[in-house]
């Protein structure tokens, strides 16, 4: 068991805009497995936080 302070926070988010594809290591195109509205988990320090019109967004 780990003390609560040593565990990182996990944030839940919903996708509002998803890119079309990703490039693999060999340069091949791989489809993205998320759709707009899908929920995903972000680590505490994952992505970049941006605030626009009093709404916080995370860019990952």
Task: Report on this structure.
This protein has a single domain, classed as GroES chaperonin (10 Kd Chaperonin, Protein Cpn10, Chain O), CATH 2.30.33. The protein is 0% helix and 43% strand. It contains no helices and 6 strands. Strands 1-4 form a two-stranded antiparallel sheet. A two-stranded antiparallel ribbon has the order 2-3. The chain has a two-stranded antiparallel sheet with strand order 5-6. It is extended, with a radius of gyration of 15 Å. Keywords: Chaperone. This is 10 kDa heat shock protein, mitochondrial. InterPro entries: Chaperonin_GroES (IPR020818), Chaperonin_GroES_sf (IPR037124), GroES-like_sf (IPR011032).
Output the number of helix runs.
0
Which band does the percent of strand residues land in? Answer: 35-45%
Rg is 15 Å
> Which spans of ≥5 residues are poorly predicted at pLDDT below 50?
none
Distance separating the two termini: 30 Å
- On the 0 to 100 scale, the average pLDDT is 78
Class per helix and strand makeup: mainly beta
Give, in spatial order, the strands making up the sheet with the most strands: 1-4
- Please provide the count of β strands: 6
Which fold name is given in CATH as the topology?
10 Kd Chaperonin, Protein Cpn10, Chain O
Shape: extended
The H/E string reads EEEEEE
Tally of structural domains = 1
CATH class descriptor name: Mainly Beta
Please identify, by name, the CATH architecture. Answer: Roll
Q: How is the main sheet built?
A: 2 strands, antiparallel
Please, what is the CATH homologous superfamily? GroES chaperonin
Specify the helix fraction band.
under 10%
InterPro entries: Chaperonin_GroES, Chaperonin_GroES_sf, GroES-like_sf
Pfam families: Cpn10
Protein name: 10 kDa heat shock protein, mitochondrial
Keywords: Chaperone
């Amino acid at each position: 068991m780990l003390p609560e302070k040593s565990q990182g926070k996990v944030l839940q988010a919903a996708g509002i805009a998803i890119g079309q594809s990703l490039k693999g290591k060999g340069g091949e195109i791989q489809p993205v497995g998320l759709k707009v509205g899908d929920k995903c988990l972000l680590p505490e320090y994952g992505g970049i936080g941006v605030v626009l019109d009093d709404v916080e967004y995370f860019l990952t």
